[in-house]
Structures are given as structure tokens and as C-alpha cells.
Amino acid sequence: MTQTKTGFSARKPRRFRSNPMFQRMKVKSIAEHGSEADQLTAEFLITDAQIALTFLDLAETTRHAKKSSRLIGEARRAYETILSFVRRSRFTPDQAQVLNKALEIIESRLRAANMVVDER
Question: What are residue 46's phi and psi, to 5 degrees?
């Protein structure tokens, strides 16, 4: 270690590749990260679809117009979020089927609530 002008010790930067702990770590390939990201995206979107359906259920059962309107708006926002991710993500056939079915249901319920929705 060397002394700096401020009196602090300066160390040479560590090289990660020479660190034995780093050498033992399994480094994933970009393809493995992409596949894992797609899986997590699918799980997130399926959960978001379930939440949107819950918002629509609550909107149907509430007696307060403002609350119902807010819940329908939240469901629409979830629908739009799902659409934006579905267009740019890759899913397994099962995941795609679940998401498409959920989108159909949410879309029809939003239309029934007189909410304008984007075309898929």
C-alpha cells in the first residue's frame, strides 16, 4: 500500500478474475439470463392479469361510483401494461395461452364497463 497526499492508504484495484471466489462462481450465458428474464416476465404478467381481474370484480361489487371508476382505471392500466410486455417478450406456448385468455377476458370486461381499450 502506498500513502496518498490526504494520508489515506491507496490499494491497487482488485482483479475479479483472479479472485478465487469469482473463479468458483458459475457465470450464466446471455441466453440463460434471457430465458430466466422471459420466465419472470411471464410470471409477473400473469399476476398482473389476476390483479386486473380482481380490480374488475371489486368495481362490479362496490356501490361507490368513484371507487368503481378508479378500480376500472387500474384494471385498464394493468391491461395496457400486459399488452406492452406481451408484444416484446417471448413465452412458452402455455404461458402465451394463459396470457391471451386473460387479456381476452379483461378486454371484454373493460368494454362491458364502457372503457375504451387498445386493439391487440
Answer: -65, -40
pLDDT per position as a tens digit, 18-77? 666 555 656 555 556 667 888 899 999 999 999 999 999 999 999 999 999 999 999 999
The chain-wide mean pLDDT, for the chain, equals 82
DSSP the chain: -EE-TTS-EEPPPPPGGGSHHHHHSPPPPHHHHHHHHHHHHHHHHHHHHHHHHHHHHHHHH-S-HHHHHHHHHHHHHHHHHHHHHHTT----HHHHHHHHHHHHHHHHHHHHTT------
Q: Which of 42, 59, 58 is nearest to 98 (CA)?
A: 42
Tell me the domain boundaries of the chain: 37-115
How many angstroms separate the most distant Cα atoms in the chain? 73
